Each structure stands twice: as C-alpha cells, then as structure tokens.
Amino acid sequence: MRIVFSFLALFVISSGISDVYAQDITISSTDLVNLKNELQLLKDSVTKLKGIVSEKDLQIKLGDKRFNTLSSQKDSLQSAMDSIKVDNKENKALVAKLRESEKYYNSQIQAMQEIADRNTAKLANGRLYFKYSDNLVRPSITSLLQLKTEQVKNDFKQALILLQTYKKYSEDVKSTLISLQSIDRSEWKSKHRIAEYKEECISILKQSTYYQIVYTKKGANSWTIPYLDNIIDVAKSIISKHNPVESEFANFTPLIEML
Fold first, then answer.
1. Does 19 map to a domain?
2. 11 in a domain, yes or no?
3. One domain for residues 205 and 241
C-alpha cells in the first residue's frame, strides 16, 4: 500500500499555458526537447498506474468469485466471508482513488501536450522570419501536421498555410523584383516624369501575387511572412527615395539576392 501511495505522489505539475500571441517565437529547441522528455516520463507514470489498477481489478474479480463460492457455506465460513468483504471494500476504495489519480495525470498530460505543441508551433512559425530554405521549412510543416492539440492546430493554421506556400511566394516576390530591376528607365529620364516613374514601379510591385493575397491583408487576424514583408517594405522605400534623373536606375539587386 505504501508503494502505491508513494507512486501517487511521484509527479506534481505546475504549468501555465500562455495566451497565443500572433507569430510569437520565444522557445528554444533545447527547451522543447526537455519538455517533450518530461511529457514522456508522465506518460510512463500513467502506464504504470494503469497496471496497478488492472491488478486491483483482478483481485476484486477473484475475491468476488471466492465470495460466491463461500456463500453456499455461509454458516461455517461467515468469518472468511466477512474478511473477503472487507478486503474487497478496501480494494474497491483503492481502485477508485487510483482512477481519480489517473484522471488527474491525464489532465496534466493534456496540459503538457498543449504546451509542447504550442512551443513546437512557435518554433515552426519562426521560420517565416528567415529566408526560405527547404531544410528548415519542410520539417516545420511536418511538425505542425503532427500536432496533437486541436486548439494549437487552430491557433497556428495560418502559419501552416504560409509555410506550405512560402516557396511559391518567395519565387513570386523575386520575379517581381527582377521585373523592377529590368524596367526601361530611358523613357523616364525627365524630372517631369519622376512621379510617373515611381507610380510605374509601385504598379509592378503590386502585381506580385504575394503582395495582393497576403501583404495587403496583414493585420492582427491575418498573418503574413515577415521576411517577405520586409523585402517589399525596403523595395517601396527604394522606389520612394529614387530620382531617375539623378541616378541611372534604382538598384533592387541586393534584395533579389536575399531571396
């Protein structure tokens, strides 16, 4: 009995689940691995607990069977029957306590699973802040698809979509910048046409699929790819500051090389 109650006191968890902040990346890979290890230890504890419950259930069944056998000899075996009743009562009470403990551990597993899933999702979402890379984005997509907590899946569903389309959008923005870099500037070599030149460049930039579908809709409830947002912001800044009369052309090559 002492071993059982020692086991019940084995693991107490105090954890908090942070509110979802849009595209928050604060978890390290090391912390995530440690968290998953703790989660596995808790799962192992519940497995052992279930074994104890099964053992006690078997004892109850055997006791019931023996009780029924002795019932026919009630007069001579009353003392034994009373003992069996007491044992069964104690075992049933213990099983009830063990099952309550199992419920508690399962609730803690669910809480820790959500923390692990949320931190996994944050780490995956963080890839959107860096240049596209198959080696980084593909594993991140896989990790989001393997999440077990429905709430976390829902919270980061936009991150999954953006990761799945990151390569396409990155190539789209790069193609748009190449078009800007290739524009024929000779026809704009007039101080009277500076505004027209800038409008033409912005018009080309806005033709980007990413610009139309994602960039223009960014907000608290609509996530974007921060890395591509920054590229577009810098391109717009170059256009706004450029004077085609004083300079041969606006140079978008450094941005193209970043994609």
1. no
2. no
3. yes
Residue 131 one-letter amino acid: K
Range of the domain at 128: 25-155
User: Does a structural domain hold residue 135?
Assistant: yes
CB 208 within 8 A of CB 167: no
Does one domain contain both 196 and 121?
Answer: no
User: How many other β-carbons are positioned within 10 Å of the β-carbon of residue 5?
Assistant: 13
Q: What is the pLDDT along the chain (259 residues), one digit of tens a residue?
A: 444 444 444 443 334 444 444 565 567 888 888 888 888 888 888 788 788 878 887 888 887 787 777 666 666 667 777 778 888 888 888 888 888 888 888 888 888 999 999 999 999 999 999 999 999 999 999 999 999 999 999 999 999 999 999 999 999 999 999 998 888 766 666 666 778 888 888 999 999 999 999 999 887 688 999 999 999 999 999 888 876 666 666 788 999 999 9
Q: How far apart are CA 45 and CA 43, in angstroms?
A: 5
